[in-house]
């Protein structure tokens, strides 16, 4: 008697999982099957005899499992358990008797019950224990039936025991495979549900009570708290796992979602100051990260997501770093209206932007240092490591190129915003018309 190829395949695929789950076996160890000597097998006739005794076998197995306090026998109805045992036992015996159900894979029953019991929350170890008890009972009945016929039949059963145990083992492995398959499906469904809820929050549906309530259960996020959203540019090679490793254990509660080229995190800060979070995430400078300002409810997650994306965009292309929205509000104005910002830069700096790059960068750096030093040429000179007169000469050159006076408060403000635009956005030099060139020449 040989084991079908598909049973051997299931056994090979799932043997490691089943061995881990079964632990110490309740099955009586039997000697190995001996090579066939050409005699007709006795197993089919013995199995057919047991098929006729199936009702009594099921009741004996019910009593045996109940006496062993099998866990899921307290969870499920007796009728449901009887049906499951009857299908398992009859499927096994029919296969041994060479009378399987027409067009049916003999492993369909254990795989289906494995999936079904997993969906019910029945522990796998409990199911495998019943399987072992059934295997022992069936072997004992086969043994008793063979012994009742003759010593020769009993010896033939022992010689043919290997395939019998192969089939029993394959049933166990199919049960495990069905169970694990259901677990995998449940995990995928749970992940899909979590992703859908996450998307609903950042799309603004956190204002809906039902969405907030479900997010509280599925994502573990409170309805109200101290929330921030983190946007990580996945194209730079960063990952949420790397960022989370920078956070002390249990410091914040985080839920992450990969969307296109972004990893988005919703973080509940608890008692952690936002500034400390920024410092923790800034330890590794190799990422591009945007962090929103705080919001206090799930209803505001969409706003926080917009802030995080805006903060990320304030990092100039090709650079890395951590940008906190509240620290970069001026840059946020620039990136949310890039065309206006670039027009402002062109209006404020005029021909300065058309200078050779080296000269342009020196003049802009000097102007920036002068503003940062309270419009003091002496302090700007110290910052730039040059003479005060050098700073003054550069500032006069700025005025000559722009046609505006740095004594004008409004022009100073325009220059400061234009500097933010130049440092944040790609520096573009629009094509100049012949009318503009002619007017400047005159």
TrEMBL record:
InterPro entries according to UniProt: CdaR-like_regulators, CdaR_GGDEF, PucR_C-HTH_dom, PucR_C-HTH_sf, RsbRD_N_dom
Domain RsbT co-antagonist protein RsbRD N-terminal: 55-194
Domain PucR C-terminal helix-turn-helix: 363-420
Domain called CdaR GGDEF-like: residue spans: 208-313
Ranges where the record places region Disordered: 18-38
Protein family per UniProt: Belongs to the CdaR family.
Protein name, per record: Helix-turn-helix domain-containing protein
């Amino acid at each position: 008697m040989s084991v079908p190829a598909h049973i051997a395949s299931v056994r090979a695929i799932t043997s490691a999982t089943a061995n881990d789950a079964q632990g110490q076996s309740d099955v009586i160890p039997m000697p190995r099957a001996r090579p066939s000597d050409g005699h007709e097998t006795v197993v089919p006739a013995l199995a057919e005899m047991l098929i006729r005794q199936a009702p009594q076998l099921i009741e004996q197995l019910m009593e045996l499992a109940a006496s062993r306090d099998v866990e899921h026998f307290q969870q499920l109805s007796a009728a449901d358990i009887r049906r499951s045992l009857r299908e398992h036992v009859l499927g096994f015996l029919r296969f041994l008797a060479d009378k399987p159900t027409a067009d049916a894979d003999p492993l369909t029953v254990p795989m289906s019950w494995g999936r079904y019991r997993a969906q019910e929350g029945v522990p796998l170890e409990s199911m495998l224990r019943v399987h072992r008890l059934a295997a022992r009972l069936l072997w004992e009945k086969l043994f008793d039936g063979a012994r009742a016929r003759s010593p020769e039949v009993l010896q033939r059963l022992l010689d043919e025991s290997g395939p019998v145990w192969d089939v029993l083992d394959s049933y166990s492995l199919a049960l495990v495979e069905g169970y694990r398959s259901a677990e995998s499906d449940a995990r995928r469904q749970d992940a899909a549900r979590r992703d859908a809820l996450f998307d609903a929050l950042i799309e603004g549906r956190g204002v809906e009570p039902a969405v907030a309530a479900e997010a509280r259960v599925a994502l573990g996020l409170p309805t109200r708290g101290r929330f921030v959203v983190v946007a990580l540019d996945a194209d730079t090679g960063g990952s949420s796992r790397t960022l989370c490793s920078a956070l002390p254990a249990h410091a914040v509660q985080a839920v992450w979602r990969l969307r296109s080229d972004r990893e988005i995190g919703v973080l509940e800060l608890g008692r952690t100051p936002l500034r400390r979070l920024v410092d923790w995430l800034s330890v590794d400078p190799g990422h591009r990260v945007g962090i929103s300002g705080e919001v206090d409810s799930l209803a505001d997650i969409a706003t926080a997501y917009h802030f995080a994306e805006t903060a990320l965009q304030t990092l100039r292309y090709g650079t890395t770093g951590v940008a906190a929205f509240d620290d970069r509000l001026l840059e946020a104005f620039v990136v949310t209206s890039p065309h206006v910002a670039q027009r402002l830069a062109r209006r404020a700096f005029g021909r300065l932007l058309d200078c050779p790059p080296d000269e342009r960068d020196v003049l802009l750096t000097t102007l920036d240092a002068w503003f940062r030093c309270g419009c003091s040429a002496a302090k700007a000179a110290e910052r730039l490591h040059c003479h005060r007169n050098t700073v003054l000469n550069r500032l006069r050159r700025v005025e000559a190129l722009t046609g505006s006076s740095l004594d004008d408060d409004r022009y100073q403000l325009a220059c400061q915003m234009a500097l933010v635009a130049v440092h944040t956005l790609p520096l573009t030099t629009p094509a100049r018309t012949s009318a503009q060139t002619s007017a400047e020449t005159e």
